Amino acid sequence: MQASPPIDRLSGVLERFRVRAQLHHAGALCGVSEFAACDGHGYLHVLRRGRLEVSHPGARDVPARMRFDEPTLLMYPRPLTHRFHNPPADGPDFTCARLDFEGGSHNPLARALPPLVALPLSRVPGLHAALELLFAETDRVRCGQRLLADRLFEVVVIQLLRWLLDHPLETGVRSGLITGLSDPRLARVLVALHESPGESWTLERMAARAGMSRTAFANAFREAVGQTPADYLGAWRIALAQGRLREGRPIKILCGELGYANPSALSRAFAARVGMPPRDWLASPAATD
């Protein structure tokens, strides 16, 4: 039997919900450095050398205190207050970036990731080349340094996401998009939904794309993703609608692109999921989160 061709599990999501990085710090950190959740950013920290102690004041879903003694990558995809406790002299060497997942709390990748991913650099093959370029850029100031460093941080994020898709259980990833994309059968369906959200996706058609019976597919999808296929599709469509409404796209055009018969149908689905119709949502603070 011929094996199924490989599929790109990430591009469909990242093209619609970008992850943006901005260089925050490069060099030693001494004393106590706090990265507050109220700033509204996620963070990607690369511990290049030295030892590090991290605390998470008041957090319930991450350890209160952690220690790292080898080069390590720490990613906080969502705002979470964390403090680095470093020696007062000769502190550990860092390169850090702020992360912003487009769509904020509605970003499907940000929702699917654990609050902290902490991995020794040696665990993630392929990081070495990107990190060498990143360190070369952050070690001295050159033309375009900040812009290039930002893009290299984004490359590191994508490489980390690739690794997570292949090792979802090793970092505490819970049911959601990452675990769904980690299953080759479900990934075929999820990629199709991401790339063609406006098509008529019945349960039968999705099950056929996965090569499974309807019952087996529905059960496997709910267990891996934590939602029924219909709920996931509805959430994906409304998340896309939110992003495009922010860009100024009219709802009368969006309804056809997202698989709704008319603007009224999209407005009803939007209100049912978001709690208010599109016009009210656009005027609310939630539209800028």
Structure description:
By secondary structure, this protein is an alpha+beta fold. The chain folds into 2 domains: 11-171, Jelly Rolls (Sandwich); 183-288, Homeodomain-like (Arc Repressor Mutant, subunit A, Orthogonal Bundle), CATH 1.10.10. Helices cover 43% and strands 19% of the residues. It contains 12 helices and 9 strands. Strands 1-8-3-6-9 form a 5-stranded antiparallel sheet. It has a 4-stranded antiparallel sheet with strand order 2-7-4-5, with no helix packed on it. Helix 3 (127-139) runs antiparallel to helix 4. The protein is globular and about 65 Å long. The protein starts with 10 loop residues before the first helix and ends in a 7-residue tail after the last helix. The model has no long low-confidence stretch (mean pLDDT 88).
Specify the number of helices.
12
Tell me the fraction of residues in β-strands, as a range. 15-25%
Indicate the mean pLDDT: 88
Number of strands: 9
Q: Radius of gyration, rounded? A: 21 Å
Low-confidence stretches: none
End-to-end Cα distance: 48 Å
CATH class of the largest domain: Mainly Beta
With strands numbered from the N-terminus, the spatial order across the biggest sheet is 1-8-3-6-9
Question: Which architecture name of the largest domain does CATH use?
Answer: Sandwich
Sheet of most strands: 5 strands, antiparallel
Give the helices and strands as they follow along the chain: HEEEEEEEEHEHHHHHHHHHH
Overall tally of domains? 2
